[in-house]
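Hey,
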Amino acid sequence: MVGREDSVEEPLNREPPIKALVSSFITKNDAYDRNHGAIRHLSASTHTVRVDGLVNTPLSLSIAQLQRDYKQYEVTCALQCAGNRRHTMRTLLKEVEGIDWGDGAVMNCKWKGPKLRDVLLKAGIRTDKMQTTGEQRKMHVAFASQQECQEENWYGGSIELDRVMREDANVLLALEMNGQTLSDKHGYPVRIIVPGIAGARSVKWVDGITVQQEESQNHYQQRDYKILPPEAVDMKSAENFWGSSPPIQDMPVNSVIARPLSGEKVERSPQGTVMVEGYALPQGDQGPVVRVEVSGDEGESWLDTEIVEGKGERWCWVLWRANVKVEKGKRRLLSRATDKGGNAQKEHSQWNLRGVGYNGYGESRDVEVV
């Protein structure tokens, strides 16, 4: 799965070991990497971000202007690949297309920079274009990076303008990650951060922001990162559905067991319990996670876990743990999460060809309890 930073054909894609990932509430050295092309190496002194489209005053903003002319906000949020947990969908349900992501294509970080809302307020949205045939039409904000990619000569994505303009949505033009200037591989000198939405829309090395009446027409918005219907069983049949299937945006509520791992041997305590730990994520903007439960008896009974870190945090993951009573032998452990919006994990989620958005129960299989 690991590629090269300078490769378009085999770009850098990696995830950390899950135990290392959950060892810290803030993801520092073990953040996952997801790329569709070579890492860009840009200069902050010359890089500019163009803001255009349906705005009154197009802008060309330097990094210095983004730092100096706009209030800086810090937002702690989880960012995850749409294909996180693809391996589970592939092995439990049916074969899928795509990188074989495990449970570690997620990071929980502090991001800092101006709100995109403030930038667009300065540019001014052309409200005369917001009415079409007498009805309010959804407008979009498209992000672009001139990164040579596997399927396209640039990378792009978009989200709805309504989301950007919500003050509480905290969509950022991020300049810092965890109190430090962004690294090259995480989008230096500036990237988009969209809390709650699939990482594919948090475009790195952003150089273009366009307000428009339609979604981004980039390959990665139109022909990837979509939950296709079950009738799309291969890439040939998928051709019938790319145009009618919406791009994945809000990520679903989810949880993962990080300890013990599948196939691991664990020893019960004198009370007959095993310590189980993991992470959980809210759906989209419906956070925080308010409950995580685990089961050591195939879902016959469920035990509330202790939320150790992240309690009450709208955009973050939570880290949780519980001592679960488990019988000796080969066992399967399960987890399920519920968020403030009432979204709760089901045993399985819908199979789809690209293997995105999987949020069936978290599980560790064939755990040998002694």
